[in-house]
Amino acid sequence: MNRLDSKTRAQVIGCLIEGCSIRATVRLTGVAKKTVMRVLVEVGDVCADYQDRMFQNLRCKRLQLDELWSWIFCKEKNRTEEIARKNPDAGDIWLWIAVDADTKLVPSWRLGQRDLVTATDFVQDLAGRVKGRVQITTDALKTYVNVIEDAFGSQVDFAQLHKVYRAPMENETRYSPAKCIGCTTKDVSGNPDPKHISTSFVERQNWSVRTSMRRYTRLSNGFSRKLENHAAAVALYYFSYNFIKIHRTLRVSPAMAAGVTDRLWSVEDLVALWEAYEQRRAERAA
Asked: What is the pTM of this model?
């Protein structure tokens, strides 16, 4: 099998990081579509594994949690028995996200349904990555209540923020969330600081996801057809967000702000990391 050189790999990854679709990446780089998709899956696995190993014993003080909706192959309402047989992963999928309000780091995320199983897996993973007491703010999703208390125990100050939205007007058609007309807060456990009960940063992160990752762009045909490709794209996006891109407010990358790394990564550094993984696999296989 032909192997792309490091420069071409960096070009492909750079296009994907900047929000280009698979077909746009093909046109810009001249690399075949199947090759681009293989690059995405392989480098996505590397990104997921590296962040899993590096995000440990984090000194996060304030975390904000939220969920972001998308779909694989088709929306849940359009999922038929025939589609389900051919593609069991087809239908709605939710991206669960945690953001450190101070460093803007995304230490944990999960893909799954908006249910207890995924919530438990997500929060347990997050709890295993942070050290010390932490304040957490979520939306009003009831699933969070017992899950967070079970995962963090007494080491958490937990509050929920419930936003109230205006009811749609008669015959109104819209493509964005309804207007927020108010919000209420609820202390769930511990003693959360009222000044820091907010989900603004994680909601801003949701906006970044939709504008920076083609698969989450609204009203487009860039959605994922396979869960494997979707998961790889998410892992690559968060690697670029955490390590490669400078946060405009912090003037460093979130990983630098959190003390996970002491330098700003480049796409070429990511390619070198990927190739180091390949070399280790080849040595183990030999």
From this structure: 0.91
